[in-house]
Write a structure and sequence with these properties.
alpha/beta; 5-stranded parallel beta sheet; 5-stranded mixed beta sheet; 10 helices; elongated
Length: 247
């Protein structure tokens, strides 16, 4: 009996070298890679020398049929997601449907765009005396009737907003951070055409509109965006004193 196992691989945020070693090896050995459209760098897709199919426009059933049919034909199949599959990757619904065909799934994590954004900004998402918490969220849209951006913003923590560039004006109106809270919008973090726009809750929407950025960008809100000018961060205990030897 053919072992029907598909690999869900996180492609990373864009830079072709940010994929994991395991992810790259799986792509190189795959007979078929079904990838998440323009969200995945073509250089990553091209690690696969076999067949490549763009899943943009395909339904869940159509994608799963491709997976099942190719596995039953004895082929090695990779489902290639952008970033990390666990963040807005819709993997649970895929897995549940594939179970009906006795297909097992192994997930290979990837570097999320939220981490590539922090790297581009040369900052931390959590920083002593600025923010000890990271909130990851998204605005309401076709697949989300109501968001919690206003309620979440009341915590004053670092907030990373996925899938929100087209709605940045509404997002800035919803949040309850002070108007001078730093905000960064990073387009295509880690890609060759990466672009960083910085501002505040009060003016970032206008700056993003002027730059013509409408999609494929991460919104990061909080003192960590400008940790020196705004955050007045505290030094880490880890590096501040001599540590006792580990027992």
């Amino acid at each position: 009996m053919t072992d029907k196992k598909v690999y869900f691989v996180g492609s990373g945020p864009g830079n072709a070298k940010y994929i994991t070693v395991m992810g790259k090896e799986l792509l190189e050995g795959a007979d078929l890679v079904i990838y998440a459209g323009s969200l995945v760098n073509p250089e990553v897709v091209n690690y696969c020398k076999g067949e490549k199919i763009d899943s943009y426009g395909l339904t869940l059933d159509e994608t799963n049929k491709l997976i099942v049919d190719n596995l039953e034909a004895g082929k090695k199949v990779v489902r290639l997601h952008s970033g990390d599959p666990s963040l807005y990757g819709s993997i649970v619904e895929q897995i549940e449907e594939l179970k009906k065909f006795d297909v097992t799934v192994e997930i290979v994590p990837g570097v999320s765009s939220v981490f590539a954004t922090a790297a581009a900004l040369q900052t931390q998402l959590t920083l002593n005396e600025v923010s000890e918490t990271l909130i990851i969220t998204r605005p309401a849209g076709k697949t989300l009737e109501k968001d919690q951006i206003t309620e979440l913003s009341r915590h004053g923590a670092t907030m990373a907003v996925f899938l929100g560039t087209q709605k940045i004006e509404q997002i800035m109106e919803k949040v309850e951070y002070p108007d001078d809270t730093p905000v960064a919008v990073v387009f295509h973090a880690s890609w060759p055409d990466q672009k960083i726009i910085k501002g505040t809750v009060a003016d970032i929407a206008g700056k993003v509109k002027e730059a013509g950025i409408k999609r494929s960008a991460m919104i990061l809100i909080g003192g960590v965006v400008e940790p020196v000018e705004y955050g007045n961060f505290g030094r880490s205990y880890l590096y501040g004193v001599a540590q006792e030897p580990l027992s």
